[in-house]
Design brief:
By secondary structure, the protein is of the alpha+beta class. It has three helices and five strands.
Length: about 90
């Protein structure tokens, strides 16, 4: 995972407000992977999606702009903030 984050800088960034008042992406000093990864989930997949898609990203903390979840059936859920990808340009794990 570390090599992927190093190769894909967007996975290691967060949004901060600059002195001009405009938000900008900055590199995280470190990533606590345990705070970004959840699971294993035993809920139905629809409930897992609702869990992820109804929680906004808190950009005021030192966390990456993505979340990774695992379900007991082997499904992996990767959710990311629109500031680091648009669904077609994103890199995933």
């Amino acid at each position: 995972m570390r090599r992927l984050i190093v190769r894909q800088p967007a996975l290691g960034t967060q949004v901060v407000e600059s002195s001009s008042g405009k938000p900008q992406l900055v590199r995280l000093r470190y990533i606590d992977v345990e705070q970004a990864i959840e699971g294993p989930f035993t809920s139905p997949l629809e409930e897992v999606f609702i869990h992820y898609l109804t929680r906004p990203f808190n950009v005021e903390v030192n966390r990456p702009l993505w979340r990774l979840g695992f379900c007991k059936d082997g499904t992996v859920v990767f959710v990311f903030h629109h500031a680091i990808g648009d669904g077609q340009s994103s890199i995933s794990f």
